[in-house]
Input
Amino acid sequence: MDDGVARIYDCVLAMVILMIAVIVILGHVSSFAVAGGSQEIGELASNLLLFLEKKGLLSSMVFSQEYDRIESVVSQLLPPGLGFRISVYTCDWKPLWSVDHQFKLGRTSSALIFLSGYQGKFDPRVVILTLAR
Output
C-alpha cells in the first residue's frame, strides 16, 4: 500500500479513537455533575439532622410524635423549592411514622441518624430525612 494512503487511514483511525474517548469522558463528567448535586442535598440533610439533634429538638419531636411541629421546623430551615420526607423506624426497621412536605419523587438524597432514646429511657429510633428537588 502507498505510504500516503496508509497515513490517511492512520489519521482516520486516530480521529475515531479520539471521538470515542471524548464521548466516554463527557458521559462520566455529566454523571459526576448529577452526583455532585445529590451529594450537596445529602450533606444538607445530614447537617440539618445533626443541627436539630444538637439543639435537642429532634429527639423531643420524634419521641413525642409531634408531626406538625417537626414538619414546621424542618420546612422553615430548608431553602424554598426543597420538599422532604421524615421517616421514623424502630431499630429493626419497622416503620413507626412518616411526615411529608411538598415531597415529590425525583432527584432525592437522604441522611439518617440513630437516636438511642429520650430522657434516660433506652428506646432506639432511626430517623431518615429525604430531601427532593
